[in-house]
Amino acid sequence: MNILEKLDTEVRLPYDEEALLSKDPVRIADYLLELVKATQELLEKLTIISNYSVDLATGEAAYYALPQDDGTYPDGTWRRKQVGDNLEDQKKIDGAWVMVQRRVPPE
Q1: How far apart are alpha carbons 10 and 64 in whole angstroms?
Q2: How many CB atoms neighbour CB 54 within 10 A?
Q3: How far is C-alpha 50 from the geometric centre of its chain's CA atoms?
Q4: 3-class SS at 34?
Q5: How far apart are CA 5 and CA 2, in angstroms?
Q6: Residue 21 is inside which H or E element, if any?
Q7: Cβ atoms of residues 58 and 82 within 8 Å
Q8: From CA 96, how far away is CA 75, in angstroms rounded?
């Protein structure tokens, strides 16, 4: 299964006010090249994220919370799980996963 990871660093584009305000065309061009490269890298990452899919086999689930230190999920956690041909949204209540909604493929 693919794993989504939390981004722990702040994303910032390069900003050089001195270069922008300078009258030096070489310095401005160098800054703009750096900005374009950083913007392109960010666009590539956003494209990967927007095209992301989760491949689940029967019995596997995608969780909408991080597990606790012991690897379990706390009450109140939601997950989406494939059960046979159906897709279920489940919530953990009093230590048990409870089906909240089931999606059945059209016939």
Answers
A1: 22
A2: 13
A3: 8
A4: helix
A5: 10
A6: helix 17-21
A7: yes
A8: 8
Computed on alpha carbons and rounded to an integer, the radius of gyration of the chain in Å comes to 22
Closest CA to 5 of 48, 39, 59, 38: 48
CA dihedral 48→58→87→70, nearest 10 degrees, is -70
Per-residue model confidence as pLDDT tens digits over 72-100: 999 999 999 988 888 899 999 999 999 99
Cα–chain center distance at 60: 18
Task: Supply the pLDDT for residue 98.
Answer: 95
Give the position of tokens 């401005």: 28
- Per-residue pLDDT tens for 7-62? 667 778 999 999 999 999 999 999 999 999 999 988 887 777 666 666 766 678 88
pTM over 0.70: no
Pairwise CA distance, residues 14 & 80, whole Å:
38
Q: DSSP assignment of 48-81, as one string?
A: HHHT------TT-EEESS---TTS---TT-EEEE
Place of tokens 């990871």: 5
Q: Which whole number is the average pLDDT over 58-67?
A: 83
